Amino acid sequence: MLIFERSRPGRRTPSQAPAGRADVAALPERFRRRRPAPLPEVSELDVVRHYTRLSQKNFSIDTHFYPLGSCTMKYNPRVCNSLAMLPGFLRRHPHAPESVSQGFLSCMFELQEMLKDVTGMQAVSLTPMAGAQGEFAGVAMIHAYHKARGDEGRTEILVPDAAHGTNPATATMCGYAVREIPTDASGDVDMEALKAAVGPATAGIMLTNPSTLGVFERRIHEIAKVVHDAGGLLYYDGANLNAILGKVRPGDMGFDVIHMNLHKTFSTPHGGGGPGAGAVGVSERLKPFLPIPVVGREGERYRWLTERDLPQSIGRLSAFAGNAGVLLRAYVYMRLLGREGMPKVADYSTLNANYVMARLRSLGYDLAFPERRATHEFIVTLRRQAKAQGVTAMDVAKRLLDYGFHAPTTYFPLLVPECLLIEPTETESKETLDAYVEAMAKILEEAAAEPEKVKGAPYTQPNRRFDEVRAARELDVAWQPEAG
Amino acid sequence: MLIFERSRPGRRTPSQAPAGRADVAALPERFRRRRPAPLPEVSELDVVRHYTRLSQKNFSIDTHFYPLGSCTMKYNPRVCNSLAMLPGFLRRHPHAPESVSQGFLSCMFELQEMLKDVTGMQAVSLTPMAGAQGEFAGVAMIHAYHKARGDEGRTEILVPDAAHGTNPATATMCGYAVREIPTDASGDVDMEALKAAVGPATAGIMLTNPSTLGVFERRIHEIAKVVHDAGGLLYYDGANLNAILGKVRPGDMGFDVIHMNLHKTFSTPHGGGGPGAGAVGVSERLKPFLPIPVVGREGERYRWLTERDLPQSIGRLSAFAGNAGVLLRAYVYMRLLGREGMPKVADYSTLNANYVMARLRSLGYDLAFPERRATHEFIVTLRRQAKAQGVTAMDVAKRLLDYGFHAPTTYFPLLVPECLLIEPTETESKETLDAYVEAMAKILEEAAAEPEKVKGAPYTQPNRRFDEVRAARELDVAWQPEAG
Amino acid sequence: MPFIPHTDTDVREMLAAIGADSIETLFDEIPAALRVDGLNAIPPAVGEMEITRLMEARAAQDVMGLNFIGAGAYEHHIPAAVWQIVTRGEFYSAYTPYQAEASQGTLQVIYEYQSMMAGLTGLPISNASLYDGASALSEAVLMAVRANRRSKSQRVLMPLTVHPAYRSVTRSIVASQGIEIVDVPFDPVTGRVDPAALEAFAGEDITALVIPQPNFFGVLEEVDALTDWAHANGAQAIGVVNPVSLALLTPPGAWGRQGVDMAVGDGQPLGAPLSSGGPYFGFLCCRKEHVRQMPGRIVGRTVDADGRPGFVLTLQAREQHIRRSKATSNICTNQGLVVTAATIHMALLGPEGLERVAGACVEGCGSLVARLRERGFEIPFTDERFHEFVLRVGVDGEALLERMAAAGVLGGHALGRDYPELSDAILVCVTETKTAADLDRYVAVLEQARADLAG
Amino acid sequence: MPFIPHTDTDVREMLAAIGADSIETLFDEIPAALRVDGLNAIPPAVGEMEITRLMEARAAQDVMGLNFIGAGAYEHHIPAAVWQIVTRGEFYSAYTPYQAEASQGTLQVIYEYQSMMAGLTGLPISNASLYDGASALSEAVLMAVRANRRSKSQRVLMPLTVHPAYRSVTRSIVASQGIEIVDVPFDPVTGRVDPAALEAFAGEDITALVIPQPNFFGVLEEVDALTDWAHANGAQAIGVVNPVSLALLTPPGAWGRQGVDMAVGDGQPLGAPLSSGGPYFGFLCCRKEHVRQMPGRIVGRTVDADGRPGFVLTLQAREQHIRRSKATSNICTNQGLVVTAATIHMALLGPEGLERVAGACVEGCGSLVARLRERGFEIPFTDERFHEFVLRVGVDGEALLERMAAAGVLGGHALGRDYPELSDAILVCVTETKTAADLDRYVAVLEQARADLAG
Question: Does B148 contact C at CB distance below 8 Å?
Answer without folding.
Answer: no
